Amino acid sequence: MRIGVVSDTHMPRTASELPEKLREDFKKVDLILHAGDITSSEVLKTLKEIAPIRAVYGNMDDLELQDSLPVKKIVKAGKFKIGLMHGFGPPFGLIERVGKEFKGVDAIVFGHSHSPINVVKKGVLFFNPGSPTDTIFTRQSSYGILEINDTIKGEIIKL
């Protein structure tokens, strides 16, 4: 199974459309996860045209998105459980904070910091795809791909 992972699109403030490379790569996935700060329901509509999507809202999302999406959820992918949430607070300590939000998961996908993270701690993959449209807290835009077979492996794709 191949999962496209995106967060912090902040559209239309940061971009008028999703990057072409992301859209092309996501045509080859079975599922898309969006970890919040979508800021426009048009982003979800665009992604739904590419592949099935699971999403949560972030701190910058409007009331319409907050009413239609959960703050966190667990997504089953094959034999694995993936915690999905946006994240909160300062970038320092973000992994620890999101880690406390889920028990019994194999991976946690999150956003908020705009900085990509792909690290395993205590047997759990912590995966932040960064932002494909905003470089406010990092030098390069990015998104991610999760490959799920006998294991879960993450890859950060830099734009």
Quick take:
By secondary structure, this protein is an alpha/beta fold. The protein has helices at 20-26, 41-48, 63-68, 94-99; strands at 2-6, 31-34, 53-55, 72-77, 80-85, 107-109, 117-121, 124-128, 142-148, 152-158.
> Which sheet architecture does the biggest sheet show?
5 strands, mixed
Give the helix/strand class: alpha/beta
Helix share of residues? 10-25%
| Residues in β-strands, percent | 25-35%
Task: Report how far the terminal alpha carbons are from each other.
Answer: 23 Å
Computed CA radius of gyration, to the nearest angstrom: 14 Å
Task: Give the tags.
159 residues; alpha/beta; five-stranded mixed beta sheet; 4 helices; globular
Question: Any overview of this molecule?
Answer:
With 159 residues, this protein is an alpha/beta fold. It is built from four helices and ten strands; from the N terminus they run βαβαβαββαβββββ. The strands form two sheets. The protein has a five-stranded mixed β-sheet with strand order 3-2-1-9-10, with helices on one face. A five-stranded mixed β-sheet has the order 4-5-6-8-7. The chain is globular, with a radius of gyration of 14 Å.
Which SSEs are present, and which pair or pack?
Elements: E1 2-6, H1 20-26, E2 31-34, H2 41-48, E3 53-55, H3 63-68, E4 72-77, E5 80-85, H4 94-99, E6 107-109, E7 117-121, E8 124-128, E9 142-148, E10 152-158
Parallel strand pairs: 1-2, 2-3, 5-6, 6-8
Antiparallel strand pairs: 1-9, 4-5, 7-8, 9-10
